[in-house]
Design a protein that fits this description.
Blueprint: H1 4-18, H2 28-35, H3 39-45, H4 49-66, H5 77-92, H6 96-108, H7 110-130, H8 137-160, H9 167-206, E1 212-213, E2 216-217, H10 218-228
Antiparallel strand pairs: 1-2
Length: 230
């Protein structure tokens, strides 16, 4: 099996090629040559280009989590998430052209766009964790996907904002989080109203099912059958 160092070389070879090529234009031979490894080593490192992309995004997640400042926990959830998302964009700065080319492919390929959204949503789950916001179940899925949609819009602004300090990006992130707070507030209200109904539905689903014959209940049918026996 390839070493971690070799695996990293293959990932960075792929990301380096993304700086100048769309993902559909990159070949595995190019990845191998750029990493200075044999083609079979590339296969041993991944199942395909989407696998390499997933590994790269996981690395960005880990870097943001590593940079997590425990003192952030004294701030509001919105401020914490703002800092985390800006940190993620800082980590992506050196790979800006690669992100641009990924976006170009996503605009032309709906299947790839859907896959990218899934990867971003998974990363957003960990960005929420980095901000000290952890949920479970459908609430976690909803928050991660909503944040992914918002972050994808922020990335569009980030790609076109060349001003020092990225003022447009900061405004975009702040607006996105402000809108997110409004939707979460509405969702919480709906969840509160629906809670009694869902609780009752849950109890109903837990009741044992009782079958019935045409002439009456299952117990009546079994009693009649017993009486009919000699």
């Amino acid at each position: 099996m390839p070493t971690e160092k070799t695996h990293q070389k293959v990932i960075m070879s792929f990301i380096g090629l993304l700086e100048t090529h769309r993902i559909d234009q990159i070949t595995y031979v190019q990845i191998a040559e750029n990493a200075d490894v044999k083609i079979e080593v590339v296969r041993a490192c991944c199942n395909g280009k989407l696998d390499l992309l997933s590994a790269f995004m996981r690395e960005i997640d880990q870097k943001v989590l590593k940079e997590r400042d425990p003192d952030l926990m004294d701030e509001t959830p919105r401020d914490r998430l703002f800092d985390v998302l800006m940190c993620r964009l800082d980590m992506l700065e050196v790979h800006r052209e690669a992100v641009r080319n990924l976006r170009k492919t996503a605009l032309k390929d709906p299947a790839f766009a859907l896959h990218m959204h899934k990867l971003v949503a998974r990363s957003m789950k960990w960005m929420l964790v980095a901000a000290g916001i952890e949920e479970f179940g459908m609430r976690s899925v909803g928050m991660s996907n909503a944040l992914a949609v918002g972050f994808e819009r922020v990335v569009r602004v980030w790609l076109d904002d060349d001003a020092p300090g990225r003022p447009k990006v900061m405004v975009a992130v702040d607006d996105m989080l402000a809108n997110g707070e409004k939707w979460m507030d509405r969702a919480c209200k709906v969840e509160k109203v629906a809670a009694p109904f869902l609780e009752g539905l849950g109890r109903l689903c837990q009741r044992p099912l009782r079958g019935k014959s045409k002439s009456g209940s299952a117990s009546d049918a079994s009693t009649g059958a017993a009486e009919a026996q000699p």
